[in-house]
Amino acid sequence: MSLLKNLHISTKCQVLSRAAMRLLRSSALQRQTGSHALRGPASVHACSGTAFLTARTSQRDPRTPALCMALRQLCALSAALVWGCVASSSYHTAVAPPRDLQITDPGLLGSLDIEWKPPPSVQTFNECTVKYRFEYRNAGDRDWKVIFTRKLKFRVGFDLSRTAEAKVQTLLEGRCTNDVEVQSDWIYATFQVPLQGKLESEVQNFHCIYHDWEYLECTWQPGLLAPRGVHYGLYYWYEGLDHAAQCDDYIQDHGINIGCMLQNLSQAEYKDLSICVNGSAAATLLRPLYVTLRLHNLAKPSPPKQMVVSMSASEELHVAWSPPGGETPPQCLEYEVQLAEDEGEAKAAWASVSTQMETALTISRANQSRISCVRVRGRTNIFCADQGFWSEWTQECFSVSRKEDKQLFILIPVILSLSSSLIICILIGQCKKRSPAGKPLHGSVGC
């Protein structure tokens, strides 16, 4: 039915075009015959609501009313032609939204399946590309996560303690739209799991660090309403596992699980890692905690190694170090370098002098202090992660003599030499005074 309507509108547009061409030829013929009836030069003004002639004589041609009528009809037909073609184009490029948006829980700790069906008229757009804009978030989040795709199903991570929200629209672009992207209306869906227990019974201060890209350490504290003897378990899942797995290496405090160490997670890097910390206690319902993590955003490297500091003749510090060990990719690291200089009795203050990806740096010293310290730390750079944790500092302190000390060091031997000569002369004078008259001295120095 829609194709017949499009064909009907296109045919109407062609008819209007042919009628306008016939009217143009008729108008041109009338202008040619009318110009011979005038005794002087004349001009025609049309499509302004009226048509009139101006001539040097007051005599008017009897065909003038017919010409004006033809020009009015031409303007009306032109407007109808434009309207008809625009209406045909806009009707042809309209696109319907997807259908039957659904969210289902496969039991993977927050990874939900979201799927939809294409719009009913998608087969008619043979000369266009049909895509979808898919957005999702948890209720309360300000920003939506956006995916452009041609797929009809996705599995994404949510915090199941809050409502999951999703929306999708159709995008159409190609020859059928004159290469202009046409968007449909949105369709929406939500999902919420039944929550048990009070919010205060959920574990608190949940925190994870991915050490050296080798192992994940997650810690938490019992909920405010958790009773004595509560037992906590951590479960996790990522794409590639057949089902959710449980932690087998817990961190305990007085017999209560307060953390977990997860090894061999390289297959989970740059994927959603879904985690649930659930608690159980006698006659008490505890609310589980659901989180979705990205390991590369939790990475914390070890401190840089083998730092070497040297001083050049021009009073410049040369600092070099090696990347930390472990599985941290060296190309994924950036470093912060800080310098502290002792200014006498004042306490030394650290100042950042560089943040870089290289493992060497030359620093010009700001003053002629006696002692300097340099320290370096690293973290994952923006090319490998959105964020990350700084490592601990690698620090090196050393003594540097001031110029005044060097000058004093040169003067000390000179002063000692002069002092020794003066003492020797004084001793010689004293010996001469003590010697008897006429007796020669047996030695030049001794008494």
Question: How would you describe what is shown here?
Answer:
This protein is of the alpha+beta class. The chain is built from three helices and 26 strands. The chain has helices at 2-37, 64-92, 403-434, and strands spanning 42-45, 52-55, 99-104, 111-117, 128-138, 145-149, 153-157, 164-174, 182-183, 187-191, 204-211, 215-221, 231-237, 245-246, 250-253, 256-263, 273-280, 289-293, 299-300, 305-311, 316-322, 333-341, 350-356, 360-364, 371-380, 394-399. Strands 5, 6, 8, 9 and 10 form a five-stranded antiparallel beta sheet that branches. The chain has a five-stranded mixed beta sheet with strand order 15-16-12-11-19, with no helix packed on it. A four-stranded antiparallel beta sheet has the order 14-13-17-18, with no helix packed on it. Helix 1 (2-37) packs antiparallel against helix 2. The protein is elongated, with a radius of gyration of 45 Å.
Keywords:
447 residues, alpha+beta, 5-stranded antiparallel sheet, 26 strands, disordered C terminus
Structural class estimated from helices and strands? alpha+beta
Contiguous uncertain segments of 5+ residues = 1-13, 31-60, 85-92, 402-409, 441-447
In terms of quaternary structure, the protein is single chain
**SSE string, helices as H and strands as E:** HEEHEEEEEEEEEEEEEEEEEEEEEEEEH
Q: How much helix is in the residues?
A: 10-25%
By DSSP (H or I, 4+ residues per run), the number of helices equals: 3
Strand content: 35-45%
Number of E-type strands = 26
- How can the largest sheet be summarized? 5 strands, antiparallel
Mean pLDDT across residues: 78
Cα-based radius of gyration, to the nearest Å: 45 Å
| Separation of the first and last Cα atoms | 137 Å
**Shape by Cα distribution:** elongated
